[in-house]
Give the backbone structure.
Amino acid sequence: MRRRPPPGCAPTSTTSATVHGYGGDNNSWLFVQEPLAARHTVYALDLPGHGESGKEVGDGSLASLAAVVTDFLDALGIERAHLVGHSLGGGRWSRRWRRRYLTGSVP
């Protein structure tokens, strides 16, 4: 997970979470993280079994991966955030998203 807060970011600033597709990792968002961070606190996540995360994926279902993202938000006390998702990363996530920005995903 990589975090990029905007300069002078207040704790109440809008939060965005980027979630990569199958076989990707948080580096999938390398070139969009900085522009997003100009206005949002950005978290680039590695889903289980990808990038620098643990290799245990549980049952690997979309529901279990979505729970990981929701648990991440809960751990940080984030009630609502923007989702920037690619492919698998834009799948069946949470109603906690302010907006979903998807590419190559099935809503």
